[in-house]
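Run log, item B.
One chain of 611 residues. Sequence copied directly from the ordering sheet:
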Amino acid sequence: MYRLEEILSKLQIKSLNDFQKQVLNVFLNSNKNVLLIAPTGIGKTTIAEIIMLMSENKSVYISPLRALSYQVFNELSQIEPVRLATGDVYVSDTEEVEERIIMTTYEKMDSMIRRNYDWLSQVSTIFLDELHNMRDPKRSEAIELILEWALEKGKRIITASATVGEIEKIAEWLNAEIIRADKRPVPLFEYVKFGNKLIDKNGKVIELKKDLIEYILDKGKNILIFENTRKRAESEYDRLRTIYGNKVILFHGGLSREEREEALQKIVKGEVKIVVSTTALGQGVNLPIYCVLLKEMELPQVENGRFVGWRRMSINEYKQIAGRAGRPRFDKEGIAVIEAKSEYQAKLFTNYLKDNYESIKSYLTPFKFILVHLSRNETETENELLTAIKYTYTLRNTDIREIKLTLDKMNDLEIITEYITNNEKYYSLLPFGRALSYSYLDLEDAEYYRAILKMKNFDIIHIIANSPKVIEVSRNSDVEGILRDWIHGKDPKELVKYGTNITEKDVKNIIDASTWQSYSFYAILKALNHKETNNALFTWLEIEAGVPKNALNLVRLKGIGRKLALFLYQHGYSTKKEICSDIQNVIAVMEKDEEMKKQTWRIKELCKSKK
């Protein structure tokens, strides 16, 4: 635990602003939970860092993105050891945590709570950032389950958002004091653009005498242009590149991690002046962006991995994207512009400029709550379960009959069992249910795998390729073809042939989802002592490593990656003993290959090791 003066010195902060002082005063002089409603850039993350460093017990910082957690981790790890827990949700890699401060994401925190690790009892404070993500169908459950757990266990909650409505209702749920700051530290000027006119929320018009991009570049500033699809982003990038050359860069979710990091570095260093992006940059790390231009206000709607139509961008989604402009330390102001294609659109889009925020709509289901709650607590009485539901935001007023219908369904699927002792009804999680919970699966997955378990024989690759969560990311590609070729050594760039307009990143997403699902199926079979458990284990390991079964020993050797393991396997080697007893011949074979001859040092290092 550090004194405030020490922390400010270590974080190189000269003084706190009024908002930060108010938050710190409430935290230090009361036991209240806190709901922070403040615009981007006012210092919410900084006050979280200060509070965690001042806390005597363990604290957890929970954010929507690994990149955000990593950014805070980098700052605090200069002061003391900090644990970064952002791995796959189904991996139990955080059973022991010695560090006082933990950085994680919504889903990983939820996963750790499900496993009910002993160290969680030492956590006194959680800081959950970007609470508005509770509106996101894919993030909502994890956020609400974390906050329900914290309320039930009496943890101190600090949660923050710049763009959330009905704050009194949320504060009542969290039993929190609202601390609000309305003034953005870096002013943001918002406009709708129609033709050469910029229109503000009051209808005031500014005439542009030149193209908006030219205007921004002439000021010596940069601009971030949002398109709603990769195809449109790529088309706009190609168009602008013919005009501005290397001043333009493209950013979207289809890029590899290395390509994204390289792009972000170029933006930070000022090497590019025009960034064309999808909503992949709508929420994230602090970037020096002066102007944001939104070219489209409709977003693709995808269900089960398939495009089903368009939907209008929500006000909160717009506010998050617009908030990328004018960041502290980089600019004294920012500009956000929505491009309209007609007078009707121009009038319609001015609604986005007004300070209206949508309320939270959570997606927590009775099934997921019961599954996770029993996962944490082993066995619960019916009364205990119904009491715990009162800590949720979504289900606290749910009709008890709906809860009981869900319990009956879970009983039918052999996820839970119920029994009566001393005139009191109890519920316990069965092995199938525990495997579902630890694997982060939902009711749709439970029904899918329960149906599979009734089959006498099955092809595991076929099962994984057709599982609901893999189909969601499949983009209509031939997943079976991708997985079988991946296991036999093909690179993602060779596997794009199995789909229409899919990228290497899409292939990697499919492989990641398939790794998760193959592990989950293995965990289910293992929990049930199924005869196919061993085959499922090796299928998971093959998909995870991208090598066939007989090469798994190689890929796990220190310094031997996937490509080298495949090369050695294809030349008849499958163990370290075989390689090192024939090392001269192995090196001779490698030196005949242009790529492999650069890796011979790895073989020499491997054979030096006695392990």
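Observations after the first pass:
- The mean pLDDT is 88.
- DSSP finds 28 helices and 20 strands in the chain.
Flagged for discussion on Thursday.
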